[in-house]
Specification:
The chain is an alpha/beta fold. It is built from 11 helices and 11 strands. About 45% of the residues are buried.
Length: about 325
């Protein structure tokens, strides 16, 4: 198949590009900074010659949008909104104008659309959409609005011949440098991976291999459209999530952090506490109902695999550096 990945140079795009290319598909990445023959330049906001890559493609998986790993200033929040809505709108325009439109358009969304809650899990049918919770920072509602506008822009695109799926993805865990697992593991290795603000907030996640398999599953399932949660079926409270990760790596200590300590740490890392403090208790209702079987349903097994691959990658990198310095 020919698969087009707008915004496919980030962590999730790199995972999909690598896996789908290895499976023998023709993968085209739309990026502002093309570097490879399979990269095509675009600006993420206006139609241009890049739209030719969409015409005749089998699948589009739009991943474009400003990273959420930043301070949630008004300027950055607006950039997150605009980059997601504009790229989704223009992808819809390209599909609508195509002589041979793709059969399916998978659009990245986020599990952050659901409410901050501890009492019950959020699936696609009974889950509570956030934005009106009490006792949380006001700007958390803006993150929900970003997700809602993201999905609404896809839903309203006039593409009657293309099936549309919104991927409400939890945190995708992979051993790649700079990804969310890499950050969490670094905290655990430094002895900082303890409970944050009590650690009762839920962490929803998905192993990178299951993320790829879920995307392939949704491409093949012509009867599935609309919002789909991409999350492992076992979300955990943050304190337990990090306890498993510390034990798997062999880190004996995980210092706890209060809310103000988390705010100070997030400021130092130029990130935001919503990523640490919001309780994302999300489960994959529609995937399970459609018959998708997770390879990594539990965090303990997934963490073990990710740690093993991380150590193998670092060992390989060390051997390459040794050969270079010795050569």
């Amino acid at each position: 198949m020919k698969i087009v990945l707008p915004g496919g140079t980030g962590q999730v795009g790199t995972i999909l590009d690598r896996a789908l290319s290895a499976a023998g598909h023709e993968v085209v990445v739309l990026t502002r900074r093309p570097r490879r023959p399979q990269d095509v330049a675009w600006d993420g906001a206006t139609l241009g010659p890049w739209a030719e890559a969409v015409d005749g493609a089998d699948v589009v998986v739009n991943l474009a949008g400003r990273s959420v790993s930043c301070r949630y200033t008004p300027e950055n929040l607006r950039a997150m909104m605009d980059s997601r809505v504009d790229s989704t709108r223009v992808v819809g325009e390209a599909i609508a104008a195509a002589r041979r439109p793709p059969k399916v358009w998978l659009q990245m969304s986020t599990a952050t659309v659901y409410a901050h809650r501890f009492d019950a899990a959020n699936d696609e049918t009974t889950g509570v959409v956030g934005g009106t919770e009490s006792g949380v920072p006001d700007y958390w509602a803006y993150s929900v609005e970003i997700a809602k506008n993201w999905e609404r822009t896809q839903a309203e695109a006039p593409t009657p011949d293309t099936r549309k799926v919104a991927l409400r993805a939890a945190m995708v865990m992979s051993p790649d440098r700079g990804g969310v697992f890499d950050v969490l593991l670094r905290l655990a290795r430094l002895g900082l991976g303890g409970p944050v603000a009590g650690g009762g907030q839920y962490v929803s996640w998905i192993h990178d291999e299951d993320f790829v398999r879920a995307v392939e599953f949704l491409i093949a399932r012509e009867d599935v459209a609309g919002a789909v949660n991409l999350a492992a079926p076992g979300p955990l409270p943050q304190r337990e999530f990090m306890r498993v990760l510390r034990r798997t790596w062999g880190a004996p200590v995980g210092l706890p952090a209060t809310r103000w300590m988390a705010e100070a740490g997030a400021f130092a890392l130029r990130s935001d506490t919503e990523l640490l403090l919001k309780s994302r208790r999300v489960v994959p209702g529609r995937l399970r109902d459609a018959g998708f079987a997770f390879t990594w349903a539990g965090w303990e097994g997934a963490a073990g695999d990710l740690v093993r691959r991380t150590r193998a990658a670092r060992a390989g990198s060390g051997r390459r550096r040794a050969r270079v310095s010795g050569g």
